[in-house]
Amino acid sequence: MAGGDGEQRGAPGGPARVALKKEIGLVSACAIIIGNIIGSGIFISPKGVLEHTGSVGLALIIWVLGGGIAALGSLCYAELGVTIPKSGGDYSYVTEIFGGLAGFLLLWSAVLIMYPTSLAVIALTFSNYVLQPVFPNCIPPYNASRILSMVCLLLLTWVNGSSVRWATRIQDIFTAGKLLALALIITVGFIQIFKGNYEELTPSNAFNFWMTPSVGHLALAFLQGSFAFSGWNFLNYVTEELVDPRRNLPRAIFISIPLVTFVYTFTNIAYFTAMSPQELLSSNAVAVTFGEKLLGYFSWVMPVSVALSTFGGINGYLFTSSRLCFSGAREGHLPSLLAMIHVEHCTPIPALLVCCLATLIIMLVGDTYTLINYVSFINYLCYGVTIIGLIVLRWKKPKIFRPIKVNLLIPATYLAFWAFLLIFSLYSEPVVCGVGLIIILTGVPVFFLGVYWRNKPKCVNRLIESMTCWGQKLCFVVYPQGGVAEEDDLPSARSQQPRSETATRK
User: Fold this and answer.
1) 116: domain CATH number?
2) Strand, helix or coil for residue 342
3) Does residue 364 lie within any of the structural domains?
4) Are 106 and 114 in contact (CB under 8 A)?
């Protein structure tokens, strides 16, 4: 049975039980939040925020407010995370509060579009910056970029499948590396300020608008800044692997979100000590332009830093998105094979392989960046529905034990911001938002055919049983909370049953 990283549980004399192991301490929890937030966003979004605000001063205000909104959302998720202490984040909370269909639609859009697309974009950003020194005077070749992205993704999938400890150590190391890189940018920025190079930051220049931003422009600026803050809720996806979640979940949030907000704001201040707004807007790689202007022979540090940052981001997204698939399968909303974990490593290998495969397909499809618009809309829709769930849960179960209980003004303020973004997104880009809604609604017939329809024909049940059998053999996996599944003891109709019948062994 399980050894190495494994964790065995069971009654004396009974079968051994295998479960996800609690190996994520406070430091690793902070690394997961910071590592998932700080990816490619801080090197891409400054241009978009500045473009829509029309001034340096308003752009900096947007960055601070973006951190504040992320903090409000995180506090709401902290209450939900310790009240419903299950891995799966938004999906688990929405399923618990609103029922199976709502949870499945969130899961469907996340597995189909949100996380594979985000992973693909981060992986392609990684490969472009790694290849930039090899192709200094042109854009890296399409095939070279795709191949390197796939190699990186496959490597990290193998690491995450081999050991939770390896995956969290990679997250710790690369999070420290990216913070050091951003600390270098901030330090150089302060040196510039001490030298008197802060003309663009003086109030008269900072609020010198070259255009008057409309409410729609401000909404788009918030979306650009919020893209850089996305990932603040990812620790909730691995709650069951967190040591003492009732203490460490809120602590990790209170440490990580203010730190990221500080880093983002002062990184942007540093950019403006070296570049005018026009130079920043004309740059396709802000950090690289900053390095070329101020670091001289050490300008190579910037593309290397971006590569390290995105490598850690890929690892974090793989780690958390695979747990979402795992949680969905455990609830009976995905094939039961995805709710199985490796008998020795205690890692959800089938779920990891599905996340990897979906990302590879998105990479091969081509125009990944167009999908970002759909992802942003779907992402914020999910955030809002989840936080509405917090208010509904207060009403439905007022006496449930809540180790953390936030003031209702916090979710109300977040939802006001959320409604502002969605309304003006629908007004500004109705086609993009419409397609996003269609993607979500395609999950309705899938839910009724795959999950709600219990009495499936025997041929369908035999097919599910056969696929589960072969999956177990190939991945050497077992059910969580259960013994090793034998070939004649596999789920048939049970593969689409609720958690009570799926997650435990006979």
Assistant:
1) 1.20.1740.10
2) strand
3) yes
4) no
505/494 Cα distance (integer angstroms): 11
Count Cβ atoms within 10 A of the Cβ of residue 220 and give its class: 0-12 exposed, 13-18 middle, 19 or more buried: buried
Residue (of 26, 23, 304, 309) closest to 167 by Cα position: 23
What's the angle, vertex CA 109, arms to CA 106 and CA 114, rounded to 5?
Answer: 115
478 found inside a domain? no
Amino acid making up residue 313: G
Give me the average pLDDT of each 10-residue run along the chain (506 residues): 40 46 78 78 80 88 90 89 81 88 88 83 82 73 87 91 82 78 86 87 85 80 80 78 81 89 91 86 76 78 79 83 81 80 78 88 70 73 91 91 88 90 78 80 87 78 74 61 37 36 33
- Cβ–Cβ contacts within 10 Å for residue 465, how many? 18
β-strands 477-478, 341-342 pairing: antiparallel
| 473, part of any domain | no
Whole-Å CA distances, 395 to 41, 77, 400, 413, 453: 37, 17, 10, 18, 31
Radius of gyration of the chain (CA): 23
Range of the domain at 52: 8-457
Distances (CA, A) of 444 to 96, 101, 327, 441, 455: 18, 7, 19, 6, 18
498 found inside a domain: no
Residue 401 φ/ψ, nearest 5 degrees:
-70, 125
The count of residues in the chain is 506
Q: What gap in Å lies between CA 444 and CA 197, rounded to an integer?
A: 57
Check residue 167 and give its pLDDT: 83
Locate the DSSP E strands across 194-343.
Answer: 341-342
> Residue 85 corresponds to which tokens in the numbers above?
């202490």
pLDDT of res. 21: 62
Give dist(CA 271, CA 349) in Å, integer.
42
Decide: 288 and 310 in contact? Cβ < 8 Å: no
Tokens of 285: 């790689």
The answer to whether 153 and 123 have CB atoms below 8 angstroms apart is: yes
What is the token pair recorded at 7? Answer: 């964790």
pLDDT score of 345 = 72
pLDDT on residue 364: 81
Number of compact structural domains in the chain: 1
Q: Are strands 8-9 and 17-18 parallel, antiparallel or unpaired?
A: antiparallel
**Distance between CA atoms of 225 and 44, rounded to whole angstroms?**
10
